[in-house]
Specification:
Elements (H helix, E strand, L loop, with lengths): L1 H31 L3 E2 H11 L8 H13 L3 E6 L8 E6 L1 H29 L7
Antiparallel strand pairs: 1-3, 2-3
Length: about 130
């Protein structure tokens, strides 16, 4: 029984993280309004979480590839003007903006519904910085 609970918890955590990160990545690209490379996205997410959380590159890049396959982001490699490595930059597409706005609207409705549940579960009344 313990093993099944652990497997279930790991799967739920992975699914939540993947969906949550997809939205955060799209949010970061939309907010910037310009292309960003992977590490810039990671930094933006770390800053937004006030340093409490920093996703790993091994988590971000597969999500970026999936978002690109869905047409929500577009990537391009750029060569450095001076010495250094090429970087892959990502930019949100019009389809990604629309998907983000739709998802945020749905999430907002859902979060309003979860407010009482979160209060009961964690004692959270409102998010504070």
């Amino acid at each position: 029984m313990e093993n099944k609970c652990g497997e279930w918890r790991a799967r739920v955590h992975r699914e939540m993280r993947r969906g949550f990160l997809s939205m955060w990545i799209l949010w970061a690209l939309k907010k910037r309004g310009a292309k960003m490379y992977g590490y810039e996205i990671i930094q933006a997410l770390r800053e937004k979480s006030m340093g409490r959380w920093e996703p790993k590159a091994g988590t971000i890049y597969p999500i970026l590839r999936r978002l690109e396959e869905k047409g929500f982001v577009k990537s391009e490699w750029t060569s450095p003007k001076t010495r250094g490595l090429s970087r892959r930059y990502y930019k949100i597409t019009p389809g990604g903006i629309k998907a983000t706005e739709t998802a945020f609207s749905e999430w907002k409705k859902m979060m309003v519904g979860f407010k009482e549940f979160l209060h009961e579960l964690f004692g959270i009344e409102e998010v504070r910085k």
